[in-house]
Design goal:
This protein is an alpha+beta fold. It has five helices and eleven strands; from the N terminus they run αβββββαβαβαββββα. It has helices spanning 2-21, 94-108, 128-138, 153-163, 202-224; strands spanning 38-45, 48-55, 62-64, 70-72, 80-86, 114-120, 146-149, 168-170, 178-180, 183-187, 193-198. The strands form four sheets. A five-stranded mixed β-sheet has the order 7-6-5-10-11. It has a two-stranded antiparallel sheet with strand order 1-2. The chain has a two-stranded antiparallel ribbon with strand order 3-4.
């Protein structure tokens, strides 16, 4: 059961990356696509058949950040956020990812409706105290914008694979003992994936920085209705 779930997660990751890589650069006025599976639900209202598209959304979650505070899906409801998966002892792509994520943080740290959620996939080693020290060494003084999250490892793996549709798992054959992608995932106010970017490439992160204001403006438009 666990193996089949991992294989399904890997397949979904591949499909997401293919979808993103085939998209042209978004113009300033173009809305971002909604990624992931979707289906149509039909209901009858006052005798009339109504069809609604139901999009893939991030599942409910509960983790703990570097301050020891509980962070749940309710804390990002109605906000834009970027999610990624890492571990502090990662000897390969994580240092590059965090250097690139720092650029995102510096650009949007004063935006009240924006957050970053970085999930450790090695919670046994990455304690709250260690994550707090790690954040401080990056220059992150508090968790108002950037949360470094830890919790039950299986739940972190599960939300990474089934909700964020990215790779996050133990693998003794990989450097550091874990396999994870370098994806930065852009999530809208409704918990839908609106973009996937390679967090190890400056050009992709440049595009992310250009795309975030589109969702911030989109959320402003929704709130004004």
């Amino acid at each position: 059961m666990k193996t089949s779930r991992l294989l399904m997660g890997s397949l979904l990751v591949a499909l997401i990356w293919v979808s993103v890589s085939c998209q042209p650069n978004h113009s300033s006025g173009e809305k971002l696509p909604i990624l992931g599976n979707r289906h149509v639900e039909e209901t009858t209202v006052n005798g009339e058949l109504k069809a609604d598209t139901v999009y893939h959304k991030i599942a409910d979650f509960q983790f703990v950040n570097q301050e020891g505070d509980t962070v749940t899906h309710r804390d990002v409801a109605g906000k834009i956020y970027v999610a990624d998966f890492f571990f502090t002892s990662c000897p390969t792509i994580c240092p590059v990812m965090k250097k690139e994520m720092l650029r995102v943080y510096e650009e949007f740290k004063d935006q009240p409706n924006f957050k970053i959620l970085s999930h450790t996939i090695d919670p046994e080693y990455d304690t709250v105290a260690l994550l707090k020290d790690y954040a401080a060494r990056l220059g992150i003084e508090n968790a108002d914008t950037w949360n470094f999250l830890t919790g039950d490892q299986e739940k972190i793996f599960e939300i990474g694979q089934t909700s964020y549709l990215t790779t996050a798992m133990s693998d003794k054959n990989e450097p550091g003992g874990f396999l994870h992608s370098g994806a930065f995932l852009l999530i809208d106010t409704q918990g839908r994936i609106r973009g996937v970017y390679d967090g190890t490439k400056a050009t992709q992160v440049n595009q992310l920085i250009k795309d975030i204001p589109k969702l911030l403006n989109e959320s402003d438009e929704i709130s004004m209705r």
